[in-house]
């Protein structure tokens, strides 16, 4: 119940931010209605007329109500660069981003947990230390730079994978790899530390004392409790990967929301920017809600 | 120093080198990295150790000035975030109940919101000057450390010697300075380091999207021009794209090594694991 | 059945268990008793190969045809031939699996033939608990589940490591009775000699890694250390004195040659310090006899003026919705020691913290030294708090590890801004708390002190501010049995010597009977009985008190 209220609050805050930030824009919300050049040619009278027409002089709550109506009727305004409705441009880009981010999240979680557990179990041996070092380095790589390096190596030098666009599975390989590799480090480190904590906890030590063999000890007694805190990290990872998608789509010219956002930023196309950010944020919130709903499956204490 | 292990010492050494570069970058004249001093697309040569970009600006100068910007921003954000998180986390731990639940609920809400996306959104609309970027990052980044420090503060507050000191009528400043600092102090280092890491990465990402401060060279901005000019299709990527990316990676890596080393020391669970 | 011969356990070359030989017969219950650090847990865990990698085991431990010492392959042995109820078992159940599933796992792994319901029945639980998760059970119930898990593989020997620690007194007795009724061979490791003695067929006492005594049930104890442990266990009868063994056990690897106990033994002669006594006839001692140990003095209470009065105290923890105190009155006069007795959840710690001004009660008044404490805040509250001394339960947590003894004891003086020569006051407080009155001692860190010394530093710190009231919250509970009475003696001398009013909070009614002038018994936030210690011990009126006194 508390979580539902919190998600409600998150959505309201996301909407409020989206509504208020453009109004804090230097030059005012006017920028939402024309390119800088077009605006500079307007006379004072024309400006006043636009402000009148779009109700900028009215009290903020009224404007917010109008904005909400717009959002709920999927009317997000018109793009300044090509005159298309923002909702339509976003509608085309969203599936591509869902595909990219969704695939990356699933792969990151599975791989991160597997390697994290391995890193914890092999802590004393050479492999474990190697994994730890690699994870820390990967966690430090900026996603966009890694993407560039992958393009240089696999696209330009080896010429084995497509480096831009989308459509086939091969197109997904480099962007997903980039996102997974940069997201994996933190996930690995966290799983590893959680697993080590659980391995030294009383329930696991006692199961060991009762004669539970090592493999079973890890699979049945340590894994689930170790995943409880990792679950929280999944939530953060979703936001991280979605944020990463903005730059990754730009690097790989992938036709999703991220590139749409980048294009909007470059063209100072504020309505498109506003809409894309809103949808990206809501996408993260929705993915979080789904991940959150799975928590009681892991922890019986959370079921009451 | 010894207590940090080999990893931590490597991190400290790396950080020292980058800090030295940043200090050198600060001492360069204002025009460094922004003035045209060579042929556009000039390869490395005398006077231009890392070549020049499409406007004939020295890439090495951009790297050095960028170091100052990145580290400066990272440390400033980390400092403010840590202080803010300590105050807010402390209030949530020992403040009145209504304040505590208000803070905790806001943290829960903030954690669901994606930091990087909001950072880019806010910077796009509010402006990209150094001060505004720092302010936005601080507003976005306090929740995670505040939660960590609240937990630490709660543990500390229940510790025996602190309770005894409270019972003997010691004023709050005494509790904080004599007892609290001893218990909380070690937690601040990883919090600070992690905040600096994320701030540097986020800021580089922002500049890479072309939303950096247009008047000041930075690692991310250099890479933005790499992207715009399609540099990685030519051989120029070796001196143009590689150094700033490496600089970001190594700065973050140095901080990560220090942070991990401190955390390993603080986590007693990492000592004895059954075989 | 189990035959341990010359077994030693060394950590980094330092012996924690030193050449111990011990047998456990078929169906026999052997109690292995000793204080913390004596090596009893190392010995027990060595039998199941549960020691950390730094430990080295020598000697042999034959269970039937299997040598348990230095075994590396435990499949088919651990859980099946020898099983353990580990220390702190009630927090050691898997939190994510149901009780039934955990028992099933043990049955499958170790080839047990019983059904899960039968096992629960054997430990006194109903089959309805099979579908519970551990967090839905009480501490005692979880302990019973842990025992059922150990029984699942039908082992011929059960090792129970401190099976009653953390449980309330009444539940402790029930769990021990359950273990004794199981009818299988058992090695019970405990620090509580008196509680185990009625159930054990044989009692083995360890001291500093060596076996001091190994006697069958009914035989009189002969080793001076065993006698010391017995006198150190407070009886609920005031005619039996409560004594302590001065000094402390040697830390790992610092035992001197000769009898390990000689430095603390009142009967020790020269050979005791040179020659290690062998275990002959179940006794390792050169001079068995009845030593005289210092005992807690009795006093005729001299009723002074009221130092603290608590009236109508109620408290509810709003966050958990728990009503911790339901209207409690308490008066403490100068020069007397009042025992506040109760099990966990009785509200005794809450009451102590209300008297200290750490918790604001929901209702009621607290008057200390004639001034009202409740309702005060800020500086006014702090000024009054300085007249109350507090001795915290945990000597390992209540001393700032980075402060030296001198600074620790001087803290109340610094906080209060007391002018004048602080060092003199500190030294006087140390002396009153029974510590060496030396400048060298002032420079030590808590890490260099024994548990008993730490608790005395804690008392000295409480005394330094010259309080009128001293509140000792379970001040003895984490100390070794043999040193507990020493703390009580110090408190008594402070009460009669300085006219200090003392509130002695404890879960052990025996301690209260021995150490206090008056006793207040708390249960679920209410006083069930109160009166002079002698009367309450001799003729308890309330059934709950009678149950506690058993």
Automatic annotation (TrEMBL), chain A:
Name the Gene3D superfamilies for this protein: MetI-like
Domain (ABC transmembrane type-1) spans: 94-291
Q: Quote the subcellular location field of this record.
A: Cell membrane; Membrane
Kindly list the residue ranges recorded as spanning the membrane.
7-25, 93-118, 130-156, 168-189, 226-255, 275-298
Q: Which processes are annotated in GO (biological process)?
A: transmembrane transport
Q: Which GO terms describe its cellular component?
A: plasma membrane
Spell out the InterPro entries in the cross-references. Answer: MetI-like, MetI-like_sf
* CDD domains registered for this protein in UniProt: TM_PBP2
Q: Offer one Pfam family short name for this entry.
A: BPD_transp_1
The way it spans or sits in the membrane comes to: Multi-pass membrane protein
Q: Which UniProt keywords apply?
A: Membrane, Transmembrane, Transmembrane helix, Transport
Major subcellular site:
membrane
Q: Which family does it belong to?
A: Belongs to the binding-protein-dependent transport system permease family.
* UniProt-recorded name of the protein: Peptide/nickel transport system permease protein
Organism source for this protein? Nonomuraea endophytica
Phylogenetic classification of the source organism: Bacteria, Bacillati, Actinomycetota, Actinomycetes, Streptosporangiales
From TrEMBL, chain B:
Give the membrane topology, semicolon-separated if more than one. Multi-pass membrane protein
Q: Which PANTHER family match?
A: OPPC IN A BINDING PROTEIN-DEPENDENT TRANSPORT SYSTEM (PTHR43839)
Q: What is this protein called?
A: Peptide/nickel transport system permease protein
Q: To which species is this protein native?
A: Nonomuraea endophytica
SUPFAM superfamilies annotated for this entry? MetI-like
Compartment(s) where it occurs, according to its Swiss-Prot or TrEMBL record: Cell membrane; Membrane
The entry's keywords: Membrane, Transmembrane, Transmembrane helix, Transport
Similarity comment text for this entry: Belongs to the binding-protein-dependent transport system permease family.
Q: What is any Pfam family matched here?
A: BPD_transp_1
Record's keyword annotation contains NAD: no
Q: Which residues form the ABC transmembrane type-1 domain?
A: 71-259
Task: Provide the transmembrane region boundaries.
Answer: 12-29, 73-95, 107-126, 132-149, 182-201, 237-262
- What phylogenetic lineage does the species belong to? Bacteria, Bacillati, Actinomycetota, Actinomycetes, Streptosporangiales
Q: Which GO terms describe its biological process?
A: transmembrane transport
Q: What is its main location?
A: membrane
Q: Which GO terms describe its cellular component?
A: plasma membrane
UniProtKB/TrEMBL annotation, chain C:
Q: Which InterPro entries match?
A: AAA+_ATPase, ABC_Ni/Peptide_Import, ABC_transporter-like_ATP-bd, ABC_transporter-like_CS, Oligopep_ABC_C, P-loop_NTPase
An example Gene Ontology molecular-function term = ATP binding
Which UniProt keyword terms apply here? ATP-binding, Cell membrane, Membrane, Nucleotide-binding, Transport
According to its UniProt entry, the protein's GO biological process terms are: peptide transport
How would you describe this protein's topology in the membrane? Peripheral membrane protein
Question: Quick one: where is this thing mainly located?
Answer: membrane
Protein name per its UniProtKB record: Oligopeptide/dipeptide ABC transporter ATP-binding protein
Q: Which family does this protein fall into?
A: Belongs to the ABC transporter superfamily.
Q: Where in the cell is it found?
A: Cell membrane
Pfam families from the UniProt entry: ABC_tran (PF00005), oligo_HPY (PF08352)
One cellular component term from this protein's GO annotations in UniProt: plasma membrane
């Amino acid at each position: 119940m508390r979580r539902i209220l919190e998600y409600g609050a998150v959505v309201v805050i996301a909407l409020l931010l989206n509504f208020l930030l453009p109004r804090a824009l230097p030059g005012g919300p006017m920028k939402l209605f024309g390119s800088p050049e077009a605006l500079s040619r307007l006379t004072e009278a024309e400006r006043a007329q636009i402000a009148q027409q779009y109700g900028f002089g009215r009290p903020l709550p009224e404007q917010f109500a109008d904005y909400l109506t717009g959002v709920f009727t999927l009317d997000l305004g018109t793009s300044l660069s090509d005159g298309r409705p923002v909702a339509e441009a976003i509608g085309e880009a969203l599936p591509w981003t869902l595909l990219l981010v969704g695939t990356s999240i699933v792969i990151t979680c599975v791989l991160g947990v597997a390697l994290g557990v391995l890193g914890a179990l092999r802590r004393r041996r050479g492999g474990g230390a190697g994994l730890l070092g690699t994870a820390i380095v990967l966690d430090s790589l900026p996603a966009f730079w890694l993407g560039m390096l992958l393009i240089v190596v696999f696209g330009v030098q080896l010429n084995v994978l497509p480096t831009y666009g989308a459509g086939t599975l091969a197109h997904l390989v480099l962007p997903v790899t980039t996102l997974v590799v940069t997201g994996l480090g933190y996930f690995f480190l966290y799983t590893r530390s959680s697993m080590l904590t659980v391995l030294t906890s009383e329930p696991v030590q006692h199961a060991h004392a009762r004669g539970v063999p090592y493999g079973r000890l890890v699979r049945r007694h340590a894994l689930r409790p170790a995943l409880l805190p990792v679950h929280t990290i999944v939530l953060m990872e979703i936001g991280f990967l979605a944020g990463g998608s903005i730059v990754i789509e730009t690097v790989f010219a992938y036709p999703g929301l991220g590139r749409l956002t980048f294009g909007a930023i470059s063209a100072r196309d504020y309505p498109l920017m506003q809409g894309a950010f809103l949808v990206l944020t809501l996408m993260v919130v929705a993915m979080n809600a789904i991940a959150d709903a799975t928590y009681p499956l892991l922890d019986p204490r959370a079921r009451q | 120093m010894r207590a940090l292990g080999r990893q931590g010492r490597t991190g400290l050494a790396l950080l020292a080198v980058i800090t030295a570069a940043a200090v050198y970058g600060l001492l360069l004249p204002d025009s460094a990295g922004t003035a045209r001093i060579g042929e556009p697309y000039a390869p490395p040569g005398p006077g231009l150790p890392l070549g020049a970009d499409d406007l004939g600006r020295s890439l090495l100068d951009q790297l050095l000035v960028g170091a100052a910007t990145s580290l400066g921003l990272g440390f400033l954000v980390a400092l403010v975030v840590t202080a803010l998180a300590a105050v807010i986390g402390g209030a949530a731990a020992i403040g009145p109940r209504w304040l505590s639940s208000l803070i905790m609920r806001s943290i829960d809400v903030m954690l669901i919101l994606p930091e990087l996306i909001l950072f880019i959104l806010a910077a796009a609309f509010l402006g990209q000057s150094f001060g505004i970027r720092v302010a936005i990052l601080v507003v976005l980044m306090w929740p995670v450390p505040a939660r960590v420090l609240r937990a630490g503060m709660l543990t500390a507050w229940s510790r025996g010697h602190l309770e005894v000191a409270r019972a003997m009528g010691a004023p709050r400043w005494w509790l904080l300075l004599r007892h609290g600092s001893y218990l909380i102090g070690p937690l601040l280092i990883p919090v600070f380091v992690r905040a600096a890491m994320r701030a540097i990465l986020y800021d580089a990402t922002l500049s890479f999207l072309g939303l950096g401060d247009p008047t000041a060279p930075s690692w991310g901005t250099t890479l933005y021009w790499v992207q715009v000019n399609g540099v990685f299709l030519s051989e120029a990527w070796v001196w143009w794209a590689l150094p700033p990316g490496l600089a970001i990676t190594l700065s973050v890596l140095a901080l990560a090594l220090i942070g991990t080393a401190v955390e390993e020391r603080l986590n007693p669970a990492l000592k004895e694991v059954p075989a | 059945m189990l035959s341990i011969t010359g077994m030693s356990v060394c950590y980094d070359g330092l012996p924690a268990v030193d050449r111990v030989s011990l047998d456990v017969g078929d169906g026999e219950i052997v109690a292995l008793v000793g204080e913390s650090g004596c090596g009893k847990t190392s010995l027990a865990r060595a039998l199941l190969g549960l020691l950390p990698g730094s430990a080295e085991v020598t000697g042999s431990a034959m269970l039937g045809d299997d040598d348990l010492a230095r075994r590396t392959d435990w499949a088919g042995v651990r859980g099946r031939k020898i099983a353990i109820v580990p220390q702190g078992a009630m927090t050691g159940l898997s939190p994510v699996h149901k009780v039934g599933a955990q028992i099933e796992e043990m049955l499958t792994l170790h080839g047990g033939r019983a059904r899960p319901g039968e096992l629960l029945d054997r430990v006194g639980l109903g089959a309805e608990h099979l579908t519970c998760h551990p967090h839905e059970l009480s501490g005692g119930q979880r302990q019973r589940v842990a025992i059922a898990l150990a029984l699942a593989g039908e082992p011929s020997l059960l090792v129970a490591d401190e099976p009653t620690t953390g449980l309330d007194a009444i539940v402790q007795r029930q769990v021990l009775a359950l273990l004794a009724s199981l009818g299988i061979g058992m090695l019970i490791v405990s620090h509580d000699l008196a509680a185990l003695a009625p159930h054990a067929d044989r009692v083995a006492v360890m001291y500093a890694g060596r076996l001091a005594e190994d006697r069958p049930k009914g035989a009189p104890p002969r080793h001076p250390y065993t006698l010391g442990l017995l006198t150190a266990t407070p009886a609920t009868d005031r005619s039996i004195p409560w004594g302590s063994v001065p000094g402390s056990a040697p830390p790992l690897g610092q035992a001197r040659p000769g009898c390990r106990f000689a430095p603390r033994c009142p009967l020790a002669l020269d050979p005791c310090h040179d020659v290690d006594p062998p275990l002959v006839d179940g006794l390792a001692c050169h001079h068995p006899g009845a030593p005289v140990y210092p005992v807690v003095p009795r006093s005729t209470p001299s009723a002074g003026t009221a130092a603290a009065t608590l009236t109508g105290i109620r408290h509810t923890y709003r966050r958990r919705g728990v009503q911790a105190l339901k209207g409690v009155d308490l008066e403490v006069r100068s020069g007397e020691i009042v025992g506040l007795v109760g099990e966990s959840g009785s509200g005794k710690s809450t009451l102590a913290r209300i008297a200290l001004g750490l918790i604001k009660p929901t209702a009621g008044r607290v008057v200390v030294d004639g001034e009202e404490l409740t309702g005060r805040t800020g500086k006014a509250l702090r000024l009054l708090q300085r007249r109350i001394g507090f001795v915290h339960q945990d000597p390992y947590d209540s001393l700032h590890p980075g402060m030296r003894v001198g600074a620790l004891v001087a803290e109340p003086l610094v906080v209060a801004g007391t002018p004048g020569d602080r060092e003199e006051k500190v030294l006087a407080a140390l002396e009153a708390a029974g510590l060496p009155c030396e400048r060298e001692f002032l420079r030590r860190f808590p890490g260099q002190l024994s548990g008993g010394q730490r608790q005395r530093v804690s008392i000295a710190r409480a005394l330094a501010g010259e309080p009128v009231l001293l509140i000792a919250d379970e001040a003895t509970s984490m100390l070794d049995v043999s040193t507990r009475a020493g703390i009580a003696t110090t408190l008594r001398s402070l009460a009669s010597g300085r006219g200090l009013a003392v509130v002695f909070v404890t879960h052990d009614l025996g301690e209260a009977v021995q150490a206090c002038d008056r006793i207040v018994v708390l249960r679920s936030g209410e006083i069930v009985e109160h009166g002079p210690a002698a009367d309450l011990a001799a003729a308890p009126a309330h059934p709950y008190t009678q149950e506690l006194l058993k």
